[in-house]
């Protein structure tokens, strides 16, 4: 299995190198050269299996010879052992034909743990084999950072630096990033918004001296291994609801397009997914693009669903690559236009996208109202992101069973949940002391040179090197 860049101008890589690299050297994102498929019989045979067994069968064809069967099965087992639910990704019924997929039972209470816990295991295995060390730099709107720190804290071959927008993450998210005490963890609060964090991260990858000098690795959702790990719960949930014998639709609260793109991969692998519905908050570039074909950036307006406060949706590039029949030159052209403010998707590509994806946008008021309403109608306490999903799903509900992804635990966003329900959602007991632990964070400006210097300094001191 080899991986190629969406911009058509970087070397093809193995799974291992794709995972350790993150962004391609031509600025593109890695995707599998061909997408393996599972037959109707293969999928039917997964009924009743554990999450871990389904994970093995779904991901195995993508991993190639990076890990043996035995090692890969062991990494999967370790990745999900720390989850607070035996089903890992349990389904809850909301209405006659509507189900909630709870993806918040991992150690940092958001779906990011599904990929990050596995990536932590895979990095450790690959790096300990080669004796190399890497510097992981991540940009976060809150949940990726906490999940990455949790997955990499204390690992001997890795330093992890997380850039988050100062003042724009929830207190629980911030504390999950600033309270770990391990020396290899570095939380950086940047003056700016998430798009600034993501832009500086991309700049670091495009600065080859820096990139090679610190052995930069990325774990943002541009990392293919992240997308891959998320393909699994589309299979596990759809199979629980009767796939492959009947089709299922999914609604996905979306920011960087990583989670929903994993659903597209599941569909391409043969899972009968009828529609993938993009749910956005007021930062609605994806919804506008699917409506009008115009992908035009606007400034980010902070919302009560901060993990979706994004205007440049990185993984959309992967969707465009396929919609443009894998024409890397065409994608490069669009991305160059994006730097100048935006682009128009061609009519053919737009039709392809609309065949796969539908979309909806939810205002702040309607998000809050949905949290109140869902509690009254179903007894479920939703986080604001999940509430956006449920609202858009209801607008798109048809005869096909609908699964909405619940992307975070309500206790991660207590202010919005308390406003809507009158109750402060409690953290699970294992993290009840989060507010008592001391915080450790470095304030940084939105400046590439300063950031690179800080990272170089930090990794050259102490026990590393
Ligand atoms: C990251 C995140 C999202 C958006 O996921 P993408 O893969 O970026 O589309 C939605 N909700 C929550 C809670 C998140 O942490």
UniProtKB/TrEMBL annotation:
Source domain of life: Bacteria
Keyword Amino-acid biosynthesis listed: yes
UniProt keyword terms in alphabetical order: Amino-acid biosynthesis, Lyase, Pyridoxal phosphate, Threonine biosynthesis
A GO MF term: pyridoxal phosphate binding
Biological process terms in GO annotation: threonine biosynthetic process
Recorded metabolic or biological pathway in which this protein acts: Amino-acid biosynthesis; L-threonine biosynthesis; L-threonine from L-aspartate: step 5/5
CDD domains in alphabetical order: Thr-synth_2
UniProt catalytic activity: O-phospho-L-homoserine + H2O = L-threonine + phosphate
Residue ranges annotated for the Threonine synthase N-terminal domain, each copy included: 2-80
UniProt keyword Lyase present: yes
Domain annotation Tryptophan synthase beta chain-like PALP: ranges: 99-332
Cofactor: pyridoxal 5'-phosphate
N6-(pyridoxal phosphate)lysine carried by residues: 112
Enzyme Commission number(s) from the entry: 4.2.3.1
EC top class named in words: lyase
Protein family (similarity comment): Belongs to the threonine synthase family.
Name of the protein in its database record: Threonine synthase
Organism phylogeny: Bacteria, Pseudomonadati, Pseudomonadota, Alphaproteobacteria, Rhodobacterales
């Amino acid at each position: 299995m080899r991986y190629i860049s969406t911009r058509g101008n970087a070397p093809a890589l193995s799974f291992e190198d794709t995972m350790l690299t993150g962004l391609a050297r031509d600025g593109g994102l890695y995707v599998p050269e061909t997408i393996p498929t599972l037959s109707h019989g293969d999928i039917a045979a997964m009924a009743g299996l554990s999450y871990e067994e389904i994970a093995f069968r779904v991901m195995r064809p993508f991993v190639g010879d990076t890990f043996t069967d035995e090692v890969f099965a062991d990494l999967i087992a370790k990745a999900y052992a720390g989850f607070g639910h035996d089903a890992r990704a349990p389904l809850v019924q909301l209405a006659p034909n509507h189900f909630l997929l709870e993806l918040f039972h991992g150690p940092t209470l958001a779906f990011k743990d599904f990929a990050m816990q596995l990536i932590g295991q895979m990095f450790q295995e690959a790096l300990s084999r080669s004796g190399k060390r890497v510097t992981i730099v991540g940009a976060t709107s809150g949940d990726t950072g906490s999940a990455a720190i949790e997955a990499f804290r204390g690992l001997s071959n890795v330093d992890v630096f997380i850039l988050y927008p100062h003042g724009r993450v929830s207190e629980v998210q911030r504390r999950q990033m600033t309270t770990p005490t391990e020396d290899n963890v570095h939380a950086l609060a940047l003056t700016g918004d998430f798009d600034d964090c993501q832009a500086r991260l991309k700049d670091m990858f495009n600065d080859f001296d820096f990139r090679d000098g610190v052995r930069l690795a990325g774990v943002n959702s541009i990392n293919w291994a992240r997308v891959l790990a998320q393909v699994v719960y589309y299979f596990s949930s759809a199979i629980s609801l009767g796939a492959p014998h009947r089709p299922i639709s999914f609604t996905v609260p979306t920011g960087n397009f990583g989670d929903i793109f994993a659903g597209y991969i599941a569909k391409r692998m043969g899972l009968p997914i009828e529609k993938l519905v993009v749910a956005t908050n007021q930062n609605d570039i994806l919804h506008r693009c699917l409506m009008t074909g115009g992908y035009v950036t606007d400034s980010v307006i902070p919302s009560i669903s901060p993990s979706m406060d994004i205007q440049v949706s990185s993984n959309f590039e992967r969707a465009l690559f396929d919609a443009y029949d894998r024409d890397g030159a065409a994608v490069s052209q669009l991305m160059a236009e994006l730097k100048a403010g935006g682009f128009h998707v061609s009519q053919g590509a737009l039709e392809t996208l609309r065949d796969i994806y539908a979309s909806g946008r939810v205002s702040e008021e309607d998000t809050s109202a949905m949290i109140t309403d869902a509690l009254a109608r179903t007894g479920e306490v939703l986080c604001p992101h999940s509430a956006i999903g449920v609202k858009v799903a209801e607008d798109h509900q048809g005869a096909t069973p609908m699964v909405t992804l619940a992307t975070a635990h309500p206790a991660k966003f207590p202010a919005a949940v308390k406003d809507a329900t009158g109750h402060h959602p409690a953290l699970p007991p294992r993290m009840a002391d989060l507010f008592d632990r001391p915080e450790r964070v470095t304030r940084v400006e939105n400046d590439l040179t300063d950031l690179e210097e800080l990272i170089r300094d930090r990794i050259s001191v102490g026990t590393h090197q």
